[in-house]
Specification:
Elements (H helix, E strand, L loop, with lengths): L1 E13 L1 E4 L5 H7 L11 E4 L3 E10 L10 E6 L2 E6 L5 H11 L5 E6 L12 E6 L1
Antiparallel strand pairs: 1-2, 1-4, 1-5, 3-4, 3-7, 6-8, 7-8
Length: 129
Amino acid sequence: MVNTDLYTEPGFFFWMPVLVPYKSLNGNAEAAGFKVRDNAEGIYELGKMFGRSWIGIPVEDAPDADRSQVRHMQGEFRVAEHVGSFCSVGKTMRAIKRMDSSLKPLFMVYPDNPNEVPTEQLRTWIYLQ
């Protein structure tokens, strides 16, 4: 079950993230008046093969902050876990589609920091409906 507010920023994707503000997301959320949740699961991302989309970080409600960049994510989802390089998530998604073509990936969560976790241990949670 997901029920969270995300401070989001736009990103641009061309098969992989091209212009996506991963490193500045927390600071930008705080500068906008939000407190990043202490138990934040990681960075959420709605990536695309090509085009604009968004990334987000869970934040606590801040009634005085500008909420134009906040998305509320809520619902029950099936979750698949990919372990390994972020670059190979597409292979996992294709395998999921082969097993059940009715499943649609909605967004992903990256719970691990690639600066702290070895590539072969990086986790990606793929949320499906």
